[in-house]
Description:
By secondary structure, the chain is α+β, with helices and mostly antiparallel strands.
Amino acid sequence: MTPISSAQARRPEPATTLTTGERVALASCMSRPQPGRHFAEASDLSRLIEPITAVSTGWPDKTARRARNMILEHTHHLQSPYWSWEEDIWAELISQERSGNYRFPLTALGYLLGGHRRLHQRIGLTRLGTLADLVFGPGTVETAVREVTTTLTQWGISPAYQRDVLRNALLDVLLSSGSPHLKDVTVELLERLVQDNSAHVSRRRTMFPISRVLAHHGLISRPLTANSHLKGPRQETLASVPAEWRDWVLRWRKLATHEPKTVESRFVHVLTAGRWAADKHPEAVSPQDWTRDIAAEYVADTLHARVGQWAGHNRNRVRHGEELTATGKAQRIDNIRSYFCELIDWEWITPRFDPRQVFSLPLSIRAGLNPNPRIIDDAAWAKLMAAGLTLTTEDLRPPGDPARRSSAYHAGYYPLEMVRALIGVWLFAGCRINEIQRLELDCITWDQGSDDRTGEPFRICLLKVPQNKTSGPFSKPVDPIVGELIEAWKAVRLPQPDITDRKTGRKRQHLFCVRGLLIGRSYLNDRLIPLLCAKAGIPETDSRGALTSHRARATIATQLLNAREPLSLADLQQWLGHKHPASTRHYAAILQRTLTAAYQRADYFARNVRTIQVLIDRDAILTGAAANDGQPWKYYDLGDGYCSYDFFAKCPHRLACARCPFYLPKDSHRGQLLAVKDGIDQMLEQMELTEEERQALEGDRDAVAALAERLADVPTPAGPTPKDLGAQPAFIPLTVLHDSLRRDPQ
């Protein structure tokens, strides 16, 4: 039989009434026993019978004859030709009890003769293969079905799913398109079918993989997305904004070139300003009507606003009624400032004030916006890392009802290898969630390096991060375990279609793609991280909030900044992919323990204030010899000798004493007597050191030589210069001096 589609079938002339002869012939046939036997013999019914005969060629004779007779009987009953029947009339005929086993032929005739392509859904037919054979001809749709199922099987979709659900959904698409060929399917048709099957959940879901196959083969421009109906603002949200203000904002939203998230955030806050204007200044519900006073009043009210105030239809009741945080206040003011600046730059409004000056956040509020990285505690992070690297199939929570959990296929919705690679990237790469989702298939590059000290070679794993909101694609080093996990996933990954990258608009292969679809953006936060928390035995929240994918970025950055050999801020900025150094400060912080240890290592006080042992001659003080005769009474221990100059702490020669009259060698007779003399008290005195003296105490021989050379012509406390006292400078051994300065006085 030659397939006949609705496009090929000869439609009757558009007469909406029966002729007199047709009425008489129908009445005559219906008045006889078994009227169906007489329909074909009535010459006046050819206009009604011939189209039915044409489209039912190849059907079983009994089936075609019985369906024809039922239609003619209903035509007589309604006194109107069947080609003028609405879908309700066809559905009424097919639903009659006497239709019985002839529901499929009658539905096919309603499709071919009445043009009702959705009649099968109206009456609830499930075996669409039978209907498709009657409409298009036996086996005509198998080519299209085979093309779709083969592609989906290559992508990893279960054959059982295709046999039970996908076949009927695809036949629904073909029947609705009026053609057995995939090339005649359009995006608009698929979108309409998604809406029509809102109550038929399984069939609705199947429309999305079908659209991906069609887009992959270039038959439609783009695949469908499950959340496309959620795009754009809700009507109840727009209804709470003055119409004039709403029109301005919708016009701006349509032409804005910012990142989608930026547009969405700014859109929400600009609508808030419109509601505020309607409440406070009904005469200024257009941006053109705002004056400097109104703008200043809006800033003042924002500083005391509450969460949910002027928010319109807001279902989020978290912190409702509490005062806005500093971040919330800044977002409202910054977004309305940017909005007005763009309206002025685009010459949509005549400027009446400078938004950059009026819409400014007070410094007292801006001070509360200091960086505060929400890092995860080291102990909790270590447990998460251990749980992630030891994940098994048993740890994954299977989806669906309990009856399906025994199936090996449904042990995990995503393959274990892909989940482990995803966890590895999250634990070690410090990427944003959209960067992880958009990683290319060939994102890993291996290189070879060698240790600077030992020369031992090691592997270098470079991860290519896709273009993000502030920078282009770049590569950064990660732990080799990330590359190993990715290579393990690529070894079992089935071929997947090219998917358009939402940032660049180019089609390419993605790493985390399975069954023709990218991994869900919420999978990591909503499923995987709670699973790891349960495995690690830690709560899903801490003092800083919920454990999310983005907090890993701050945690890794902070650990790299506080490592034993830390990355510099410039290195960390490049590793994170930040455009501005200020952004890095919001992710990495110097930990208190790291700051304390660094301060201890700096030895600030000891570097600038050193102690030296001092001998006090009490006899010289008590007898008055020090006051009357100028006899020395204080002796500074310099290692091999003593300095008897009272103001040694201010002497420029104190650490490179030449043959100064105040210098008393320990091996001299007087020095030996001083060591054993009675009435000698020992004490420690602190003195501040210059930079040259610090270098000298740290053993810099060149610094000591330079110090001695510089002081060669400087007079000593006794008067003569070191050159006057001798040609060869008399250095105190620095090692001995350093030891003496640290000597325990006890």
